[in-house]
Amino acid sequence: xxxxLDYRYGREEMKRIFEENAxxxxxxxxxxxxxxxxxxxxxxxxxxxxxxxxxxxxxHVKLERVKEIENRIKHDVxxxxxxxxEVCGDAGKFxxxxxxSNDIIDTANAVQIKEALEILLKGLGELRKVLLTLAKEHxxxxxxxxxxxxxxxxxxxxxxxxVFAVEIARHEERxxxxxxxxxxxxxxxxxGTGAALGANALEIQEKVMEKLGIWPxxxxxxxxxxxxxxxxxxxLANIVTTCEKFATEIRNLQRTEINEVAEHFEESQVGSSTxxxxxxxxxxxxxxxxxxxxxxxxxPAFENNIMWHERDLANSSAERFIIPHxxxxxxxxxxxTLSLFRKLNVNVTQMRENIELTRGLxxxxxxxxxxxxxxxxxxxxxxxVRKLSMEALAQKKHLRDLLLERQIFDRAGLEKIxxxxxxxxxxxxxxxxxxxELGD
Length: 440
What we know:
Number of strands: 6
Order of helices and strands: HHHHHHHEEHEHEHEHHHEHHHHHH
Shape: elongated
Strand order of the largest sheet: 1-2
Strand content: under 5%
């Protein structure tokens, strides 16, 4: 074993779709569907088509035999055709009738992609629910919002989680909308004219795709348009980038000097080989590292769309890597993100304490707004509060105290202004709306 997907990363549920024997099964299913569809239009005798479909499984067509033939003839699809023909008796002469290699390859791809996307949809749905649960639980949990890595104004942790859930929901929608584009197969033979299939070529193609539960390519060369795969791989890269963004937020909030959330740490878990006290965010870091590999697959996906004339074979070897790897990595990352948030430790007390680190400066906007309500111009108020903020920072004083010294507000008014929990706007209502819209 050389690839870490073989022994370290990826879930078996997704890996099974892309195993070598599974790939053979998908291609045999396509050959069977092609035979049955052609029988419906009189191209193949019905009993012969039924025999082909019956034998088009890896129970009858062994991977070892396919490899043996391929070693001799140096053609992977033709090896499957010959191995299937061997077990079909007289019906063998109709195997692969009117088809070309990419009719089988691309249509099998479409079936695999559809099943893989359904697994991703399930994982994304679970992640969305976990994030919504956190959003509800922390609807009113106040923490500091940060921009440019600096303290900004208060936010709620519930709103942060609700915003995450919305982004996941958009990915679910993208997958559903993209299914007909990603899961398109073809049966139009060499260079895409359907000449070998006769006058009913388009109807035969539609029948094959209907039997396989996918969509027909509506215009192709000898291959399905690779712009479809570009969009697919870019979507998978988009999803893993979202997960990396979430994981990066957790990594930052887990910093010792912030300590607002933390990745779950098992009782027997070791954080460092030399520093016994360490509790490193290794799961979040793993998500980030794998996401970078998944995004790197976008470049060859784009390059695979550039072919000579009606087709060449430069895309084939690259696609054997990028499609399985993109799906296995994306699925692994989704489920690791799910685990990260399902067991997330939220330090509410530290969130409250961190709001006070700037000695009230994070409430400067509210002070400015209150001044404008009392008749001061917005720009004048901004400049006044800016100067006072810089003074408070330089003197290490609380902004509230400077305002009190200058008798800009009375003490009771200042206490209300500097209560962070009352300056989160409509954040709780936004959480409620998102939970209502996205909850099952």
